[in-house]
Amino acid sequence: MPGATIGVLGGGQLGRMLAHAGNRLGYRFLTLDPTPDSPCGQTAAQIVAAYDDREAARELAKRSDVITYEFENVDAGVAEMLEQQSYVPQGSALLYTTQHRLREKRAVEAAGAQVAPYAEVESLVGLRTAAAKLGLPAVLKTATGGYDGKGQWVLRSEDELAPAWEEASRSGTQLVLEKFIAFDKEISVIAARSPSGEVKTFAPAENIHVHNILHLSIVPARVGDEVLREAEKLAVSIAETLGVVGLIAVEMFATADGKLYVNELAPRPHNSGHYTMEACRTSQFEQHIRAICDLPLGDASLLTPVVMANILGEHMDALLDWMKERDVAAEKLGVEPKVHLYGKAEAKARRKMGHINVLAPNVDAALDWIAQSNIWRD
User: Fold this and answer.
1) Phi first, then psi: what are they for 108, rounded to 5°?
2) 39 in Cβ contact with 343 (< 8 Å)
């Protein structure tokens, strides 16, 4: 119940926004992160230590009533240890599954969802065989690690196989080749599940990436109603089949003929769910707190059309200039941009520094404002 301390493995922006939401409910927060004055550490007490530091993890357990994680590359062994010493409602099994693409794909298939045809790759010969079977283009991915396009190689011709193998094999992890899906839209659904088994989903977001980094999340997603219903149904099935506690983000490809292929899972708050902070009755961050603490889940209904736009390091100067002035374009279009900055010490190119939720009468108005703004121009 409120008054308890929630320990967070990871001190990034997701932990920061969890702490903001949980503080309002009366919870205290303690984060473990190797970066001093981390984004979460600015809003919570912090243990400065490496993620695999077991003594530090034991200290986190000692000082916390419940432990959660804000990114899935937490050491699963540490999570398993914490599970034995503290209350970790998300558990280590879900981490074990989602940290490895092959295990994740098998779990998704067990939940009745489709994934892109794939093959495990263990050698250059195996890569050539898999490419011949699946066809090109295809995407070679590391089975573990990788985010925002890292650990991925798009292969369009046989000449690219050997160079990609040479680079990818240095990762020291298993590799998987996936058939390239000619998708019409990328969408994601965030589902919340409590230990009591209550499940709720947020409205599907349509996601647009630039340089493999999420640029925009558009809600309502511009796909048919049947696709929206099926996407939410798949997210519920995956949450229930995997025994999720807390949030799980289900990223999918939607093809022109209405088929859905699950691409990735993320067992935590997700960038594509940031729109919920102003646009829904309950934010993804409050919902996660409610779920892990086994409180009744909040109403996830969408209140207004919205487009979330990420702010990267290269956008910061323009953003700060914009914040100083009256925005005539926003007034004309009837949109309300809401800024969220993460408190990161240094603005680096392609580093997520914050986001803006553009509340609007319709998504076209929000997209028009983003297109007219100087913030995202090169």
Assistant:
1) -65, -45
2) yes
